[in-house]
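Entry under discussion copied across for reference:
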Amino acid sequence: MMVAAGFYLHFSAVLFLLLVVTSTHCLGLKCKEHEYPFGAKCCKDCAPGERMRSRCTAKTDTVCAPCQDNYFSPEHNHNFCRSCTVCDTKKGSVEVKKCEKTSDRICKCVPGYMPDGRYAPGSVCLLCPEGFYSPGGNESCRPWTKYVLLIPTPSEQWFEFHSVAINAQVMICTIKQQ
């Protein structure tokens, strides 16, 4: 008996939605910008930075509320606010732009790290493997450019000089006696 009641309830909901969509289409309801059709009525969307608190009814319009802290909505909508991206500082990420009610937080990877492609860009970063570097800013890891120089010294001994170019501003050098 409970299964039959659940089926009829589900069937009724689907039938109602079909009726709303069909009647809206058949009536040729054209809503203004930042409105959405609901039944035979056009309802207002919520502004950027807001979420829908309650849907419009035959007698009332959509009720909107500001997005909570750490949530945002970048455009007019009749949905919920989205959760802001989290910059994982333990995984080489730093915040570049704060989360606001109308825009998401922006993260980037610090030098020596590259973005983990499974997450929002720069929110989780991977350490570059040995022999590779990244200048940061969500760039991929690249192989080091290696140089070996032999430098004469006043005592006629030779030293081996290794350098690793990290980027145009940084070079790591190691000098060892032969």
